């Protein structure tokens, strides 16, 4: 087969086959359905020969394990999707489910093939249907390596992880020309749906990469953390590094003296997991929380954490969506969850209320409650109100909940509580001593983790330097955890 590499290179992009070769282990890719051709006989299509109908499909190996891969070829009819093009991808996904392996799609397409009319839409429909059927059965990974517009965006939107590449990724429902004609707004493709837009603002992209080679290396790394099909058990790495003495010294020094001061929760995560193993997901989006994968004693774990360095660690609409989706992914593939809590609450104010913080926040509660995987929670500092409950508390089915000695667990902080309970006294300077006394009393008798421990809501109060050992032992104990019986029903109704 002759490929037009130069045409792609002129645009600063790799060719579809070069992408597959860069992604897969050397010489491991086996193409299928290379002989497929379109059958459209109108608008000049009857004389056109479109090799492999514009998409290369097949199976290969990554890190010695099988994967299904497809790559749209923009040099062939603009990578446009017709009936056979869509059906090739749909059948590949169906075969990947049967072969029990991940499917990776490299998207670079001008969209639906207009000449094929409703047949092209059928191709998309078949593809979407198989995306949904495969969800939770095998991991689905999408690479946006060129334009992805209109209906084409919904296949990646259904998949588990989307990788965007700087300068070449473009995703939008309607392109700049339509926006210009309908709204009178002049905007570039990059401003409308480039990699930064979807990695930082929309949250559509889970990873943003500087170039294609970095993208493919990140995918290879991701596949080392996640099961390759439902029921797959990732073997723990034979070797893992963890400098206990160094990590425990660092973890004890991370929290600032004042509870109002910020710090980066990633520092605590890195002190707890195997050395250099934390692999963050959606790093640039909703920075008040952190999600990602890591290894503990060589075994994969999903990490969820509030991050005080971003908006104080509050739960807002975006962070709630980010957490809920990640929790549901981990639960789908039986990846244990480790949650670090330092949350002052759900964000207040009219803007978030109008965006639906009630609905979005409910997703976190639903996701954690539904998750049946091993769940271990560490309350590092603040855990207030409904956000305390939502962040994988004992009340939502956490198996073990640990709290550091200075953790604050209450309906709200001392200042907010006194503002309600002693509002009049706080306005009277003569009663400042009384207010100070009540503030300290509230901290000593209400906010302390001892109360929660006495009620059985906390499994144990632990010192920061004991965190790694406690977490590792807890996860080891929970490895054989079985799901409890659920009420008879078809499925629940998550507040989407």
Features:
elongated; eight-stranded mixed beta sheet; 17 strands; alpha/beta; 496 residues; 38% helix
Description:
This protein is of the alpha/beta class and 496 residues long. It has helices at residues 5-9, 16-23, 83-99, 118-134, 154-158, 176-183, 189-193, 195-202, 212-222, 244-251, 265-272, 317-332, 350-355, 357-370, 385-390, 414-421, 423-427, 432-447, 449-454, 467-477, and strands at residues 30-32, 55-62, 65-72, 103-107, 140-144, 147-149, 161-165, 170-172, 207-209, 279-281, 289-296, 299-306, 337-343, 375-384, 400-403, 408-410, 460-461. The strands form 3 sheets. Strands 10, 11, 12, 13, 14, 15, 16 and 17 form an 8-stranded mixed sheet that branches. Strands 1-2-3-4-5-7-9 form a 7-stranded mixed sheet, with helices on both faces. Strand 11 (289-296) and strand 12 form a beta hairpin. Helix 3 (83-99) packs parallel to helix 4 (118-134) and helix 12 runs parallel beside helix 14 (357-370). It is elongated and about 90 Å long. The model has no long low-confidence stretch (mean pLDDT 94).
């Amino acid at each position: 087969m002759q490929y037009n590499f130069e045409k792609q290179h002129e645009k600063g992009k790799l060719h579809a086959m070069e992408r597959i070769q860069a992604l897969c282990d050397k010489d491991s890719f086996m193409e299928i359905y290379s002989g497929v051709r379109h059958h459209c006989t109108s608008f000049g299509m009857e004389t056109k020969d479109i090799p492999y109908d514009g998409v290369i499909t097949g199976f290969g190996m990554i890190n010695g394990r099988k994967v299904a891969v497809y790559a749209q070829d923009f040099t062939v009819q603009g990578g446009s999707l017709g009936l056979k093009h869509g059906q090739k991808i749909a059948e590949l996904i169906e075969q990947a489910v049967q072969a029990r392996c991940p499917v990776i799609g490299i998207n670079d397409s001008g969209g639906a093939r207009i000449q094929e009319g409703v047949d092209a839409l059928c191709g998309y429909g078949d593809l979407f249907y198989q995306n949904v059927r495969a969800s939770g059965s095998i991991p689905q990974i999408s690479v946006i390596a060129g334009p992805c517009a209109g209906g084409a965006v919904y296949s990646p939107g259904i998949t588990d992880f989307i990788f965007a590449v700087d300068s070449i990724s473009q995703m939008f429902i309607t392109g700049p020309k339509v926006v210009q004609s309908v709204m009178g707004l002049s905007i570039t493709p990059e401003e409308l749906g480039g990699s930064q837009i979807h990695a930082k603002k929309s949250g559509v992209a889970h990873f943003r990469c500087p170039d294609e080679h970095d993208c493919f290396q990140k995918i290879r790394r991701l596949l080392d953390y996640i099961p390759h099909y439902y029921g797959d058990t990732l073997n723990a790495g034979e070797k893992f590094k963890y400098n206990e003495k160094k990590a425990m010294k660092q973890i004890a020094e991370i929290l600032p003296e004042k509870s109002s001061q910020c710090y980066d929760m990633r520092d605590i995560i890195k002190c707890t997991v195997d050395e250099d193993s934390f692999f963050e997901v959606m790093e640039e989006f909703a920075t008040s929380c952190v999600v990602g994968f890591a290894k503990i004693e060589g075994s994969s774990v999903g990490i969820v954490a509030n991050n005080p360095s971003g908006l104080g660690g509050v739960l807002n609409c975006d962070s709630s969506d980010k957490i809920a989706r990640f929790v549901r992914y981990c639960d789908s593939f039986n990846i244990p969850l480790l949650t670090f809590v330092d949350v002052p609450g759900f964000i207040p104010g009219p803007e978030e209320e109008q965006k639906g913080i009630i609905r979005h926040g409910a997703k976190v509660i639903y996701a954690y409650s539904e998750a049946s995987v091993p769940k271990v929670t560490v309350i590092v500092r603040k855990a207030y109100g409904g956000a305390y409950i939502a962040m994988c508390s004992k009340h939502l089915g956490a198996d073990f909940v640990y709290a550091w000695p200075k953790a604050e667990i209450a309906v709200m902080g001392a200042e907010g509580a006194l503002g309600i309970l002693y509002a009049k006294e706080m306005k009277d300077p003569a009663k400042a001593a009384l207010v100070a006394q009540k503030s300290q009393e509230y901290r000593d008798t209400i906010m302390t983790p001892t109360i929660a421990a006495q009620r059985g809501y906390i499994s144990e109060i632990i010192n920061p330097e004991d965190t790694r050992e406690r977490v590792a032992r807890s996860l080891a104990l929970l490895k054989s955890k079985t799901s409890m019986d659920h009420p008879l029903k078809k499925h629940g109704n998550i507040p989407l």
